[in-house]
Amino acid sequence: MMENSLKQFADEHATAIGVTAFVGIGLYAFRKWMAGAVCRSRAKLDGKTVLITGANTGIGKETAVDLATRGARVILACRDMGRANRAAVEIRQRSGNGNVVVKKLDLASLQSVRDLAKDIQENEERLDILINNAGIMWCPKWTTEDGFEMQFGVNHLGHFLLTNCLLDLLKKSAPSRIVNVSSLAHERGQIYFDDINLERDYGPRKSYAQSKLANVLFTRELATRLKGTGVTVYCLHPGVIRTELSRHAWGRIYFWMKPLFAMVMMLIKSPWEGAQTTIFCAVDESLQNTSGLYYSDCAPKEPAPQAKDEAAARRLWDLSESMVGLD
Ligand SMILES: NC(=O)c1ccc[n+]([C@@H]2O[C@H](COP(=O)([O-])OP(=O)(O)OC[C@H]3O[C@@H](n4cnc5c(N)ncnc54)[C@H](OP(=O)(O)O)[C@@H]3O)[C@@H](O)[C@H]2O)c1
What we know:
Layout: H1 2-12, H2 14-35, E1 49-53, H3 58-69, E2 73-78, H4 81-95, E3 100-104, H5 110-123, E4 129-132, H6 150-172, E5 176-181, H7 204-225, E6 231-237, H8 247-250, H9 258-267, H10 271-274, H11 276-283, E7 293-296, E8 299-300, H12 310-324
Bound molecules: NADP nicotinamide-adenine-dinucleotide phosphate.
NADP nicotinamide-adenine-dinucleotide phosphate is lined by residues 53-54, 56-60, 78-80, 83, 105-108, 133-137, 154, 181, 183, 237-238, 240-241, 243-245.
């Protein structure tokens, strides 16, 4: 009886069932594809120290949980101490590692960057992995405390200064690694050397792309300068991830598009999935002897042609040095 009614239902709704199954399998396959690769390294980090910028949320927080689970002392360098302290409690709980500390860092202030670097130089015996993860995307035309365009200032200049200030400690701790979290958005980027703060023609996307291209060029030039020191450098695109990064875009989305946007958010990478390439670059043994490359989904990837321009990388280095006041 039951069998007959099931069969009758299937016959009557054959098309709808077929379409639902097709869409379901398609969405499942798409979600699997979006999830990307997972870092399979079992490397332990007992006795090592890691510093991660912007680790109170998003992929920075997931990276911190993973590296703390591997035994590292993890320093969360964040601008909002309330959020950072709450994240630290969660990271200690999830990793079972109590050696997770919070330090203040506002990348939109060169003074704050210098203060953190001084604190680390004076109080940390070693620094094995520096992860320049913090980022801001598509914000309005804002400037940093020092008058730089906000996205270039935070995403590139703040990390440029922090890294340079910590190089001696990284060299002393070699073999050590620097990981710069860039983005696929670098492919649309260009470095506007004659208007670096985009004063003449600001665009939120244009500025983000410039800053993410700067991350790749910085990685390239830094790797060249660090040859033979035992400090290696990597940059990466983490994927498209459900984090707070789109906070400045949300207000500009038409209200009728928001449900669609929310649905898309369900299909993209989770923060844990988004952290995998950063973790891979930070710990995977296979990368020990490579430096200066760009990664995506736990594998090397060719960056855009403008990200391989060595003259531009050197010019950006010189410009950044003079902007942040480095000798
Ligand atoms: N999500 C994606 O789809 C995606 C794609 C490609 C690349 N990325 C890159 O991945 C990195 C991490 O982004 P996410 O997706 O995890 O974004 P998120 O959830 O918004 O996290 C960004 C982190 O950066 C911090 N930050 C922002 N401005 C700062 C400042 N002035 N000083 C110090 N910290 C600051 C934030 O602190 P607050 O919480 O205090 O704001 C937060 O901790 C970024 O570099 C981003 O460009 C992300």
